[in-house]
Design a protein that fits this description.
- By secondary structure, this protein is α/β, with parallel strands linked by helices.
- It has a single domain, classed as Alpha-Beta Complex (Amidase signature (AS) enzymes), CATH 3.90.1300.10.
- The chain is built from 18 helices and 11 strands.
- It has an 11-stranded mixed sheet with strand order 1-3-2-4-6-5-10-11-9-7-8, sandwiched between helices.
- Helix 2 runs antiparallel to helix 3.
- The longest helix has 25 residues.
Length: about 475
Amino acid sequence: MMESQIKAIHQKLVKKEISCSDLVKEKLNLLKPNTHNTVNSLLEDYALALAIKVDEKIANGETIGLLEGIPFGIKDVYMLKGTYTTASSDLLKNYKSAYTATAIQKLLDVGAIPIVKENCDSFGHGSSSENTIFGAVKNAINPELVAGGSSGGSAVNVAKEFTVFSIGGDTGGSIRQPAGYNGIYGLKPTYGRISRYGLMAYASSTDCVGPIAKSIEDIRIVLNVMSGKDVKDQTTYVSEPITEETIASNGSVKSVGYFKNFIKSEAIDPKVKSDFISVVEKIKAKGIKVKALDFFKSDTLVSTYYTLAMAETASNLSRLDGTNYGNRIEGDNLKDSYSITRSKNFSEETKRRIVGGNQVLSQGFSDEIYLKGLALRDQISRNFEDDFNEVDVIISPVTPGTPPKIGDSLKDPLAMYLSDAYTVGFSLGQLPTLTVPQGTETGLQITAAKDNDELVLKFANFLKDTI
């Protein structure tokens, strides 16, 4: 029997050891003091109304589903009709969703109960959850350190058990890196496995919806519910549900790869490096073949990723000019109104990315920079295809170093970008990749070929008992 908070709580609800209303109140009471700045808004009335319905079903002897009555958190970039969806920004601080994101709707359809909209880097721009109007999110293990980003609030709520699971968003590592910083599981599924409809777009070609939880089994349960084709998102595809039985056995992983230059990189912390090498030895000791692979230098990956992500976010955020959405500030004329609204309401980091993106897309530069970025992305994808002809999965550290102190990354944006050195490559390749809270201080990342999310969970389960 695989460990699972969802299943344990489900059993308690079914056996009437706890009422759903009490469970939801208990979680809300943990969130109310907002000790770690994880809360943008509490969905108290909404959640309690749903909890009462679950209690009535149980009282009437009706069967409840596995996720029915389970309280979860939502990163504040997802639409949930009638709730504030702020993206932790001044521009949208009073914006209420007019509809619900597909992934969230699927969770509502099976009875899961959303209790909080969670603090994050504004529009997903950041790797530390400090770039937010609600104050920096504090790390679950050491509150003086950053929580990681951009899904920092979601990761901390799970780590502190303020929510049973949370739904983050991952563009270049925004689920995996905070999961690593807070010692929990976080999955970026294969691109297109889960609909992005109703997620505020950052970089449309790498944005992924994914679960954050304390066990592999809970990741699997939530992933299955959210996956699937959606007519509202043309990049989605039909995928098979992953069963508990398949991931419980590890018959299929015969070979594991890792990237030499990640480990030889000057940026890697010596302790992260030595811990990673000892993981490799433990895997070898189990009779699994381990292969050192060649890959692009991590600074090439970071610059390719940020070139494309900034171009896409400049384009995606152009709709936010205060005309249709958000907090409009009137100027002397229309152009002036646009300019003041955007200057005053966007954070420094968001402005940096929009300016960078518009530069990359501008005449004279786009051939030089943007097209080169696209070509590199294709090379990176081809490289991965070759790698997965040789090995079943790839393991890597989640981050080159440990979480910085709150305040430090704001002084040095470049250092913040480089903290994504080991996550962005897999985003560019649109691959399924999971952070597991083992191996190094910020965990390990397990990656497989496209649409092989099952293998990632399977190997994670094997590693749980191996290292």
